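cron nightly-structures :: item 1 of 1
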Amino acid sequence: MKMITLVANHIGVDTYLWLREAVGFKKLTRTQAVKALKNSLYVVAAYADDRIVGMGRIVGDGAVICYIQDLMIHPDYQKAGVGSKIIENLIAFVESIREDDTEMMLDLMCAKGREAFYEAHGFISRPNESLGPGMIRYLKERRA
């Protein structure tokens, strides 16, 4: 396994779109991709030599709640520790912006079958005894 280097807040739109395609994420328009990267609180990319092999973003308000978004590892580098390196970096970033003596929520939407990975990094599954299920609504067509 090649040495993995993390680079913060420096990923091009073409690279982001290429990685999304490589892992089978939904296709975005270029405008969506530009806006997504620009409006992120933090973006970290993992490189093996000069090749991007993974990335993740933090989105949110930076005070009460943040979300891990687009945690993507190129298929050639999955199950090699790259995802753990990225998620720990994302968690450290959120800890660095959390106000002293406060609690902040760090949420994510987990792909089916990936629960154990996130649980190994301290996340809890929903629903449970005290939390209901996470929910989503896709906005696609304009309503009259």
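cron nightly-structures :: done
Residues 126 and 134 are 7 Å apart (CA to CA).
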